[in-house]
Design a protein that fits this description.
With 373 residues, the chain is mostly helical. The chain has 12 helices and no strands. Helix 1 packs antiparallel against helix 7, helix 3 runs antiparallel to helix 6 and helix 9 runs parallel beside helix 11.
Length: 373
Amino acid sequence: MTFYKFTVGFVLTVAMIAVLGFGALVFSARDFQYGVADISESTRGVIDFSKLAEAEAKVAAILEETKGPRGEHAQIEEQLSALDGEAQQAAANANTARASMVGAIAAIEQRARVQGAASAAADLSTQGLTQRVNALASRAGLAPDDQQSVATLRTQAEQLSASDERATETNEARAALVTRRDLVGGQVKESDRRIEALQRTVLAETGQYERVRNEANALRNLSPLGLSAYLAQGHPALLSTMLVLLMGSLGSLLYLFPAYLNRPQPVTMAEIAVRLIFGMCAALAVYVLANAAVSSFSFGSGPANSGTSSNLNPFTVSLFGIVAGVMSEDIAKWIQDRGRGIFTQEPGGVSNGADLQPAVSSMINPHGGPGAP
């Protein structure tokens, strides 16, 4: 291997590393924009990272300022939940005991033939049951088993009264907690409104703010020297154009590397420079044609930006660039043939066949050389 060939290989390697590195930065920024636009259409993928950082700092200050009320509000909610659970359990136990007492009292009243027992049975309150038990206890002539049952019922009635008192105390405590919760909750809601207003300065759809913030922080933290985050604040169309140019260069390098390794004719420095520029030009030409086709199909229908390049998937843009870079000569020839077919029409609309066969000296050969048909 000659020193010149080694130098050419070194230049190709450096060019490939440079194109891959900068292409990765641009691609990550454009992919971030595409994802954000999918989450929040109003942003069109562009997020102001300085505003985001400013909003995050102010939100953190508000959260720190309202840390006490927020903690108290959470504690009150837990206490209310615990009280509600205890109240439901106590009510269920009281209803079970009440149902058991009603059946036992009715059986004793039937055996004792108590007058008016049917009308009294409609009162299922603790006071009503207690009165019925006391009336049975004061009644003479009850059987010994019934007397023992009445004594048990009196104990149950006392327990039921104590349960009702505890339920009243629980309700009073719950009412006090609800009052305090509403007071503290007002402070929390006011701080939440301030936080939402800050979030709206960055993103109109506050419901998607956390998701967009996490994506932006991930891009900012992982991009070298914050370059991807800086690029992501540019216009999507500009980033797409930069991406397609870089991918055109990548396609050219994908063509040059096999030529450097396998082609009998050595690759020269001039060929590297020309091929890189030619690949970028071909990629840009294909990109413009693709955007023109998309715009023509979406013209006059849908949103105003439905046919713009900012809506193209970065993978699609990269594919255009790489294919155009690898096949730059064939693409240039294809565009030349199509253009000649369009611009050599007779006035009547019939193509002039003679014009489709220009002189060799006037035709540019994209494959190099003086000219070719």
